[in-house]
Amino acid sequence: MARLLSLAFGALVTLSSYAQTSDLVLFSDDGTKFTLVIDGDVKNAEPAARVVATGIKTETPMLMVKFADAGIAAIRQSGYLPTGKEYTMMITTNKKGARVLRQTGEAEQGTAAKAEPAKPVPTDFKDDNSTVIIEETVEPVGVDQVTTTTVVEGDDDMEGENVNISMGVDGVNFNMNVKVDDSMGGGSSTTTSRTTTTTTTTTRSSSKPAPVIDTKPVVKEPAVYSMPGYTGRSGCNWPMSESEFADVKKSIEAKSFEDSKMTLAKQVGSSRCFTVEQVKGLMALFSFEDSKLDLAKYAYERTFDIDNYYKVNDAFTFETSIDDLNAYIKAR
């Protein structure tokens, strides 16, 4: 009984610890190899194009990507990874030619570990532009095998000497049995010949199954987000998804003080892109007018549909806040 209680307690501790961490799957869209460092901890000993990092304990870790190619500048970016989930990020190139980190999805924690391991790359792999020559040996088709048997029969009542002759030439056998009468009485020998020919045709098939070619297209995410119905300027490339924004709001709402909420909101904004509606949603989480104005100013240059920014005025209580924000925007 004591052993069962001990095992149950150990399982609960393991589950509790597991739920207080998060995992990260990071890959490069062009196969560039890199080393991932999270909060000073190196996650892969050798540079790779895909790295799985587990057991991340902080929700806002500092991510650093060092590329194997020394000519590519390293990426330093703070992340927002609420515990209990696995997040997928992609290293891609923005429209300015700089490499950035972009979150592409989230899943149940441990999904990457459960995935089928990658198959080893064959040692004789060649690039698409290489020439590969395959030599194929084709067996002859429709080969005829001909067997001929010759039997010579004599009169059994003949007197004389039996002579047996066997001869083989190029796979053809000749068998001859001759009865010779060598008496001086003028006896004669009678010989009967019977020839049997057997023809066997053997057919071998030379057809081989056609090679299997993987024609599945490689889907590459577009560099810039397209908002349906919006034709104005873009203040950033890719706003947060609705599910990602819902998690952000939940985390900010859990904070008790305005300062803590503002710190977290700005941490998220340092590496994320908003929509105007998302900015308004964040402003609604603050009680003080000064906090709302501070957030609106901070998020202005981090908003995708920047020409819709006039809509954040609805989140203010006082007209003076609207005037202050407009003056700030004009000065940019």
Strand-helix topology:
Layout: H1 2-19, E1 22-28, E2 34-38, E3 41-42, E4 50-56, E5 62-67, E6 75-78, E7 85-93, E8 99-108, H2 111-114, E9 143-154, E10 161-169, E11 172-180, E12 191-202, H3 242-253, H4 258-269, H5 276-283, H6 289-299, H7 319-330
Parallel strand pairs: 1-7
Antiparallel strand pairs: 1-4, 2-3, 2-5, 5-6, 7-8, 9-12, 10-11
What do you see in this structure?
With 332 residues, this protein is α+β, with helices and mostly antiparallel strands. It folds into three domains: 20-111, Immunoglobulin-like, CATH 2.60.40; 144-201, no CATH class; 242-330, no CATH class. Helices cover 23% and strands 28% of the residues. The chain has seven helices and twelve strands. The protein has helices at residues 2-19, 111-114, 242-253, 258-269, 276-283, 289-299, 319-330, and strands at 22-28, 34-38, 41-42, 50-56, 62-67, 75-78, 85-93, 99-108, 143-154, 161-169, 172-180, 191-202. The chain has a four-stranded mixed sheet. Strand 7 (85-93) and strand 8 form a beta hairpin. Helix 6 (289-299) packs parallel to helix 7 (319-330). The longest helix is centred in the first third of the chain and has 18 residues, at 2-19. It is globular.
